[in-house]
Every structure is written in C-alpha cells, then in structure tokens.
C-alpha cells in the first residue's frame, strides 16, 4: 500500500513537471524548444528572454501554484466538512475576492494602479474569512460554516452583479465579466511575488491538517476524543483556504471545478485517506490547471480562451460521469 | 485505582440544566452500565468526561484534574465510542482501526512497531483481521460495530466510554458486542457503557448507574438498581423481573396506569 502511494505521488509529480515544461514551451510566439530553454536559463537571445522570463515563466508558475492551491484546499475542505461536494469557493473566499477585484475595476482604481486589483481582491478574501469565522463563531459545527459561506458568497455575488448592473460603460462591464472567468494571460512576475507568500502560508496551514482530517473520518466527537482540537482544525482550514485561494483568485480570477474534481478523482487511488489525498490532490490540481491553460492556448491561440470556462467545460461532463459511476456502484 | 472520579459535576447547555450534581467513581475492572430514559443525560455525561461539552465541578482522570490534561493526554487515558457510527470515507478496515493510534503519534512521524502491533492485536481480538482490506463503508452493521470497537481498543486506554453501542444490532450481535466489552474488562480495561436494553444491562454489567433528569438516582449491582419501583417511577413502565441462574431477567410489559396483568413483583 505504501509503495503504491509513493508510486502515485511520483507519477503525479512527473506529470506536473511535464505540464510545467510544456506550459513554458507553448505559446503564440513560435520559439524553438532549445532556444527557449537556453533563453530561460541563461538569458541568451533578447526577445526570447523577455518572452520566456516575463511572459511564460510567470504564467507557468502561477498555473502550478494556483492549481496546487485549488486541489489542496478542495481536498482539505472535503475532508474537514466530510462532504465530497465541498470546494474552495464554498467559504465565500472566491466570491469575495472577485468582488474586491470588481470594485477595483469598477472604480477605475486598477487603471491608475495595476496592483490595486489583486490587492483589493486579497482584501475581499480577508474580509470574507473574518465574516465567516465570526458567523460560525465558537461553535465548531460544519453546518454553520457552510451556511455562513453561502451567505457571504451570495452577498458578494449580489454586489458583483450590482457593479455590472450600474457599470458606467460596456467596456468596464466586459472587463469585469472577463476577469471573473479566470485567466493566467498577461500575468507578470509581480503577480507571482504578490501571491506566493500568501499561497505558501496557506499551504503550510492546510498541509498540517492531514492527521486531523484522518481522525475526522469518524466524525468530530470521535476525533476530539482522540485528541484532535476541532476548533484549531476549523481555524486552520478557514485561514489556510482564505490565504491560498484568496491570493489565487486575486491574481487569476475565480477558476472553478479544479478543487471539486481533483480530490474526487484521486480519492479512490489513495485508499480514501484524507491525509494522503492532500499531496496527491495538490499535484493533481497543478497538472489539471497547467493542462487546461496549455489547452486554452492551443485551441484558440488568438482568442484568449478563459481558463474558468475551459475547466468547467472539461469538468462538468467529467463530473456527470462520476455521478453515473457512483449511481452504478450503489445499485 | 480510580480511573475516573467525578465530583459534583454540573452541565448546563444554553439555559437547560442537563446534568446536576453528578458524583461517580470508576475503578479498575468495572463494567458499568449507564441507564436511564431518553434525555436523562447519559450521552452528555460521557461527553463531559471527554471535554466535548463544557462542565463545572470536578473531573479527575487517573488522579489528575482533567482541566490540566490536554485533549491528547485525555485520549491516552480514555477511549470513546460515539453513538453514531459515522464513517465518512471508504477507508480500509485496517486503516480505520489504526486511527486509534492518533493520540500517540507526534508530528509527521508514522506509526512505530508498537503502534502496528497494537492495531494488529485489536483486529485479532475483534476478529476482523480477515477482512482488513475491505472498505469500511461496505460492512454490515455488526461488522461495523466490531471495527469501531477495535479502533477504540487500538487506542490502548485504561477506560472505554461507549455510547449506545448495541443500538440497531440484532440479538446475536448485541450479545457478541457485550461479550467483547466483558472480555476487555477481563483484560484490564474498565468500561462505562450507556444502554437502553435493560436486559443486556442486567445480564452483563457489574454495576448499574441509573440517571433521571440529570441526576444519579441509583448506583449499585443490577438487582438493587432495577427494581419495580424504579421502573415505575423513572421509566413509567410496569416490569416483569426475575432472578435466574443467568442473571436478572428484565421485561417491561406495560405503561404505568394501563392494564398489566402479566407484570410480576418479585
């Protein structure tokens, strides 16, 4: 069993590496493989260096980080809430981060100061998590957290729609809609530097929960009776998701389905153990997002296909297939 | 040695007084049945010992005040079987039992040889080793109950608190379950078990504690606790009681105030 798990992690790591390199090599500027890599590593060739280091590297890095974030936080939330339908957006973090970004676009702040958009989005995520934590309060009940998340999500969604509704011109509305669909296009190393600290902080919190999530398989009372501090688990799950998913949404918009599907697909392969699902799901999420981003560039190189659209197009039928498989398994 | 000592324990949830002035000692080698009508406070009593509900008054675990023990340290002394037999994911039986070692593991280190041996021994004792690789979600009710007891056994605590472990099981599985609790007691673990089946309580427990509206009203050997008066006054039923070679037979037959021709008084 142990060797089987190691093999799976190794395979997923390899897949992620392949996707990462492929992401560096695919793009509208037709560059040779060896030229590209030489430019990236040694800085030889002027225009190619700029393309590789300023355009493709941040894009691939963000794909890696954000994909892993979505996979990991999905696995943690499903384990914590003991619900296979939980996903990173559940806590209202994505919706609130989107709202922050929309406000930045709507007020024109993002035009005056480009980093205002991700910063406002981060502020939105922080506000959401404070609100959810306050609403959930001292009770560690998972239902309260889901309800609080739904309330925050709905409110943020309504405010976003209001901004669209009152949008001063069609271009601002268009920009808002596009941003909400999620994309890794035209992100710079600045975005990477902005998101990385939060994402890494979130990962540390989320990865520390493995053993607690295993114990939660038997329900919160049994887990507490085995020495697990449920309130600490709740705090870490919420803060870890807020930091990592908030930062991810801040730089790339709301990308759905990755955090829902990846843990689902990988769960049977890790013997359904929540602790083992965490690293597997992080690697799986990174592979899926990098793959989707490559696909977006291959299918329509000049149309800037939105990542969120693509993950949903791939994700939804896949999810249906899962539903059918589960139904067959039950009957 | 006193494994657990409760003195003047009070629990108030919201504005409702759930437990009132509970004092109780649990010693080594005891199989204590916690009985009482629905809502009497049996589950709350077990949970307050574990620190799952806030309480006031004294709880001492193996001689130490519970307030000075972390959850993890409590877990090394006391194992707990909750009433619902929740299992969220399709983990294998073996991994589920191994969860019992959770309080003994530190950091990211995996289980040691001692942990593996205790898990193995728990599976052997509950006779579940044969299906150790099966998914815990595919088990029958009786198998699931045994697997969960094995999980608690693997925790290697001196005291087990079991909340309604026989609920929903057929007679054979009920007896097998009580037998395994009795075996645990034989091997040095003390057990406090809440029960609705008074027949099982009378037959298997060395001592019964009767709780009514949050207070202990009787505490002693089964024959002293299960009396016609207690059955009438607290459960509101007329009861047929008979002492036999197999122990006390307890059969509630009618609600108080209705016809009870068959109710005996012995």
TrEMBL record, chain A:
The transmembrane residues are: 58-77, 89-109, 115-136, 143-164, 190-209, 235-262, 282-300, 307-324
Q: How does it sit in the membrane?
A: Multi-pass membrane protein
Location in or out of the cell: Cell membrane
Q: Name one GO molecular function term.
A: transmembrane transporter activity
The protein's matches in Gene3D superfamilies, at most eight in alphabetical order, are given as: ABC transporter involved in vitamin B12 uptake, BtuC
Q: Which UniProt keywords apply?
A: Cell membrane, Membrane, Transmembrane, Transmembrane helix, Transport
**Principal location listed in the UniProt entry:** membrane
A GO cellular component annotation here is: plasma membrane
One family from Pfam that matches here is FecCD
Q: Which family does it belong to?
A: Belongs to the binding-protein-dependent transport system permease family. FecCD subfamily.
Q: Which PANTHER family match?
A: ABC TRANSPORTER PERMEASE PROTEIN MJ0876-RELATED, FERRIC ENTEROBACTIN TRANSPORT SYSTEM PERMEASE PROTEIN
Protein name as catalogued: Iron complex transport system permease protein
Give the species this sequence originates from. Phyllobacterium myrsinacearum
Automatic annotation (TrEMBL), chain B:
Where does the record locate the signal sequence feature? Answer: none
Q: Does the keyword Calcium apply?
A: no
Molecular function in Gene Ontology? ATP binding; ATP hydrolysis activity
Please give the CDD domains that the UniProt record associates with this protein.
Answer: ABC_Iron-Siderophores_B12_Hemin (cd03214)
Q: Which InterPro entries match?
A: AAA+_ATPase, ABC_transporter-like_ATP-bd, ABC_transporter-like_CS, P-loop_NTPase
Has the keyword Protein biosynthesis been applied to this entry? no
According to its UniProt entry, the function of this protein is described as: Part of the ABC transporter complex HmuTUV involved in hemin import. Responsible for energy coupling to the transport system.
Name of the protein described by the UniProt record: Iron complex transport system ATP-binding protein
The organism of origin for this protein: Phyllobacterium myrsinacearum
